[in-house]
Give the backbone structure.
Amino acid sequence: MEKKLEKMNNLMTYKIASDELTLQEKVGQFFMPAAFINDTEEEILRLEELIKKNHVGGLCFFHSRASAATNYEGVTEIPYNAKSLETLRKLIKRYQRVAKYPLLISIDAEWGLAMRIEETQQYPYALTLGALAQNNDLIFNVGRNIAIDCKKAGIHWNLAPVVDINTNPGNPVIGHRSFGEQREKVCEKALKFIKGTQSEGVLTSIKHFPGHGDTATDSHLGLPIIGKSKETLLKNELYPFQKLIGEGVDSVMVGHLSVPDLAHGKRLSSSLSKDIIKGLLRNEMGFKGIVISDALNMHAVSKNYTVKGQLEWLAFDAGNDILCFAEHTPEGIQTIMEHASFDQIEESFQRIWRLKEKAMQAQEQKSGPNTNHLDSNELNKKLAQDSLTFFKGNENQIKEFIKNGFYGVAVGNNTDNPFFDSLGSNILFNRLPLLDGESKTKDPLENEKDVLLAIFPPRTSPKELFGLAKEIKLINELIARKNAVVYLFGNPYVLNHINCEKAKTIVIAYQDFTVFQEVAAQHFLGRHKAKGVLPVTIKD
């Protein structure tokens, strides 16, 4: 045990030469299986054994098996664990103890650890950050705060940001995770996030190469096919990747999507395409860093390869250095050793080893007690103020609306409604949930002319009209027959399904956080101006 600890400490101080590892240990470094915070003791012991026997290079943490990758919108109930963060920290220490060489720990924390862990700080989605007209330094601070939270938990690598340019309103998997549809703005905002993260020594990864923004298929469930020409892709989808590669990013995550014009007509997933990874990304675009695959359990690729180890070998042979969410690690190691050349193995291993050294060194240089960590509530308040966007109307119209009195109607996830609560402490108005259309009682709005409609979409993705499938008709009927001021606390693409033409005024607040609702209330009361710019196009 003492020798094992000594070796771990030696790697921290760079005394272990990379040539001390056996060939099998080097291949093991390519593998980053999934770890689950809410696993049973039996499952934890199995992963410990996998780490010890196969010398995997790292782990990618997910909340639970019910919420990870292909199951993330499944029917399995997702367990709630208020102590997830404490459990995560303990598991990281436990898994590190059984590893011969320190593990590189990664997680998806695009909007903070809250993406995977309960009771942790959540920051706005990328699309909300995309609405900032100026003050992109706030995005730097978001990246830095998230990085500090990662370091405190023992995480080296945030698999973010998303640099996909979202141009498809029906995109089922990107949407709110993108900074928007304008390539330059996506680049500048992603770079701020990256620089903020790097300022604390945490690694980043731009994703999902070569661009997942114009897809209608969720790659967790099937293989999206993009029929655009290479020329078009270079001008748009590939532009952020090329620009950010020039800024020295740590890694690029390759998505599971088929782009035939980049692969000589072949309908093969990008993550398995030598033409796309070695040809385009490495040779043409000049990327020298780590290439990591998107989760290999995703059905876009996993359902096509039933022989254990085959998918892992094909992904590695295509040019992926790190195989994320590899499900067949022992078989994958064996298959790679049987088929790969020594030079092929050594080249990827050296890239990974350099990345691990960089990550371990940064982990040693821990931040002092909250030295750089801005108060998260104050940061979110500034983000709420600067992102609030007028889609239609102006402040004067709201001022006139208030004079006549109005009825407040909330729709969607409105169990708690700080928006109406904040207004109610300043002005008198009646309020009610939206009628369900089934009620036989008298419509309380029958004699009301002016309605303040607060929409809280239950979902961030377009599935079932953002969770409003049952309410959309009633919302539109209400807007059509009333003088309506609308505040939307969610994905702006919801407006594609709203009767915007008939609404008097529409304001987008993007998030339903308490602080976003309170800022929206201050705006309605005339104490704050909307400064944001819509980051995507809404149809007329």
